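Suppose you are handed only these lines of text.
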Amino acid sequence: MLCLTKLCRRSVSPVNNLIRRKRITELGYARQRKKSSKKIVIIVVPTVIVVVLLLLSMITICFSLRKKKGIDTVKNVDEISSVESLQFNFDTVRVATEDFCDSNKLGEGGFGLVYKGKLSDGKDIAVKRLSRNSGQGIEEFKNEVLLLAKLQHRNLVRLFGFCLEGDEKLLIYEFVPNASLDQFVFDPIKRSYLDWERRYKIIGGIARGLLYLHEDSRDRIIRRDLKASNILLDAQMNPKISDFGVARLFVVDQTQGNTSRVVGTYGYMSPEYAMHGQFSVKSDVFSFGVLVLEIISGQKNNSERVEDLLSYAWRQWEEGIALELIEPTLRECYSRKEVMRCIHIGLLCGQEDVVRRPTMASVVLMLNSYSVTLPLPTAPPLFASSRRKELGLTTVEHGTNTTNASQPILPDRSISS
Ligand SMILES: Nc1ncnc2c1ncn2[C@@H]1O[C@H](COP(=O)(O)OP(=O)(O)OP(=O)(O)O)[C@@H](O)[C@H]1O
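From them, the structure of the protein bound to adenosine-5'-triphosphate can be written out as follows.
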């Protein structure tokens, strides 16, 4: 009996042991599980939170982008419909300009007279009354309206509206109070108002305006008639590129053109455009180069010159006396570094080789950053008066300015007369 009990105990105790061990193991597992679940909580939860936050921010970004796109779309629709709503009544313009009276005349361009006007709400306007024989047809007119209505940049003149009534074709622009750049740069008295700092800012502003036309506006636009009289100055002397009557609308990859009708002013025209009617953004770059040299030197690049301005500047550059180009009134106070860089840029833009001319994006970069190394310029085209005569080209210099309607508003200095 005792033996049996002992045997039983012996036989029970391994079972108990097993159960105990099992319990211990389970307890161990449970503890381990608890520990690992704690670990999981510590690692996974923040990860999940981060992922959720990331997803949320991505969704927010997507939403705001879609919203922005939506606004843009609305803006586009607005713009298109506003071309119609930009239409002015002829009587409104007639009253605003006091019946197009002479005292309100601002000047005359190739396409007609320009008048100053005041709308009933007090807003100043400039009205371009296109002459009937301007050669500008209804399509060109609408082209200019559509182009300008779409373009908005601080260095471009804004279009407020247009008027088409009977034979009358009018464009209504924002009034830019300080007239055109040529009236300062080439005027023996007013030129003293443009110190180097102002001229440098003007060069930068024109470059940014052109860059916008070439690359940033939705449609690539080639200005084709960039010159000092087409740069207007606002009350703070910020330059504004005006008059897009000859600009053409391009889809972005259609960057080059060929035309039998050359529209432009010869002193500023690239050789490939003047001689073969070929234009590209690089034709504007060429004109910009000429303009920069005019702003620095105060000299007009017209047909009366023995040697054209580009060739003259190039010769001085080669002789190492480029700084002599600078207009005498500037000599007392200017930044040698800035003037040299601008002459360099002017010569790069005026190179005969179209490919070597920089883009306006490069020009803006060159003006803004001295860490950008400029390539050495190569020769400008042989554009001397002799060659012009040889080619039978005459300088087209239409455009007169009358100052009776616009006494310059000068920000902080007055012109001594
Ligand atoms: N928005 C404006 N605000 C103030 N003045 C203006 C405005 N637009 C033109 N003018 C004045 O009228 C003049 C003639 O301008 P317009 O654009 O018709 O011809 P242009 O630029 O002189 O010559 P072109 O027709 O050959 O380009 C300008 O030089 C300028 O003095």
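What can we learn from it? Residues 1-12, 65-81, 245-255, 390-417 have pLDDT under 50 and may be disordered. The first strand starts at residue 105 and ends at 109.
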